[in-house]
């Protein structure tokens, strides 16, 4: 279930979740004083957040889950920030603001959010708490947050609830991060939960964009892969090596003409409840 749009209750609940995540644990009375609302309201908020799998309540306290410990891993960022900026600008050009934009798991999709600041009437669907923090700091738009359990990275929302939430709204564009293009014809994902979420989101969205911080083909046998045929555009930080380029072309992609290396499919596609041209 989608938690909701930009309402006073949602903003307060997001703030409660952020505080608990930051502090590790908080008493009801302390949250009540901090947010200037009644203890009854805070208990209702905590009950809601616990139902969503975002906090736990013990002995009159709201406590962060063990998964909220400092992150020890996750998709790596490209070392050259100029290439990263090129990738984000290329993704921004491909995103259609006419329908809700789903920001998927990974560092790069979150860094894309500030580029939407000048879009009027924007609607975002967020699948991580890192994305929530960034969106609230730089955007004044309609924000929806997926339900679900927190992933091992302490930020991403995953599991059956998150996947079920995807069907609640039309998704125009889904932007996510993958680690590499594989020799087996897929995109390497961080873990099975991320792969399952991204597969479901790709099938629901009208347009899908993968940000891949490696331009080299992964030759080693990989575990958690998303099929390339679910993805409309693959954006790399630079020109791919020969193997990566051949794999993308074999999968039906054609190179674009932007600074970042953009590969897209030229045929029209129909997914979810929308019909778009993927070129």
UniProtKB/TrEMBL annotation:
<dbReference type="Pfam" id="PF08220">
    <property type="entry name" value="HTH_DeoR"/>
</dbReference>
<protein>
    <submittedName>
        <fullName>Transcriptional regulator, DeoR family</fullName>
    </submittedName>
</protein>
<dbReference type="InterPro" id="IPR050313">
    <property type="entry name" value="Carb_Metab_HTH_regulators"/>
</dbReference>
<dbReference type="GO" id="GO:0003700">
    <property type="term" value="F:DNA-binding transcription factor activity"/>
</dbReference>
<keyword id="KW-0804">Transcription</keyword>
<dbReference type="InterPro" id="IPR036388">
    <property type="entry name" value="WH-like_DNA-bd_sf"/>
</dbReference>
<feature type="domain" description="HTH deoR-type">
    <location>
        <begin position="9"/>
        <end position="64"/>
    </location>
</feature>
<dbReference type="InterPro" id="IPR036390">
    <property type="entry name" value="WH_DNA-bd_sf"/>
</dbReference>
<keyword id="KW-0805">Transcription regulation</keyword>
<dbReference type="InterPro" id="IPR001034">
    <property type="entry name" value="DeoR_HTH"/>
</dbReference>
């Amino acid at each position: 279930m989608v938690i909701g749009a930009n309402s006073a209750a949602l903003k307060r609940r997001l703030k409660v979740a952020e505080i608990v995540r930051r502090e590790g644990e908080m008493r009801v009375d302390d949250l009540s004083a901090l947010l200037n609302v009644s203890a009854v309201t805070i208990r209702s908020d905590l009950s809601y957040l616990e139902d969503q799998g975002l906090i736990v309540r013990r002995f009159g306290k709201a406590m962060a889950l063990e998964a909220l410990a400092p992150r020890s891993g996750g998709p790596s960022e490209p070392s050259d920030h100029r290439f990263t900026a090129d990738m984000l600008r290329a993704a921004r050009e491909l995103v259609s603001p006419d329908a809700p934009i789903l920001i998927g798991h990974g560092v790069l999709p979150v860094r894309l959010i500030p580029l939407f600041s000048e879009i009027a009437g924007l609607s975002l669907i967020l699948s991580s708490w890192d994305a929530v923090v960034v969106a609230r700091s730089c955007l004044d738009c309609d924000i929806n947050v997926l339900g679900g359990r927190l992933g091992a990275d302490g930020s991403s929302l995953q599991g059956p609830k998150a996947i079920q939430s995807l069907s609640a709204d039309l998704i125009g564009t889904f932007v996510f991060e993958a680690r590499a293009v594989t020799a087996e014809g897929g995109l390497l994902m961080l873990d099975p939960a991320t792969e399952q979420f991204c597969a479901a989101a790709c099938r629901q969205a009208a347009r899908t964009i993968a940000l891949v911080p490696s331009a080299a083909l992964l030759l080693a046998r990989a575990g958690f892969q998303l099929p390339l045929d679910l993805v409309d555009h693959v954006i790399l930080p630079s020109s791919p090596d020969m193997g990566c380029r051949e794999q993308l072309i074999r999968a039906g992609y054609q190179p674009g003409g932007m600074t970042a290396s953009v590969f897209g499919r030229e045929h029209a596609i129909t997914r979810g409840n929308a019909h778009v041209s993927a070129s």
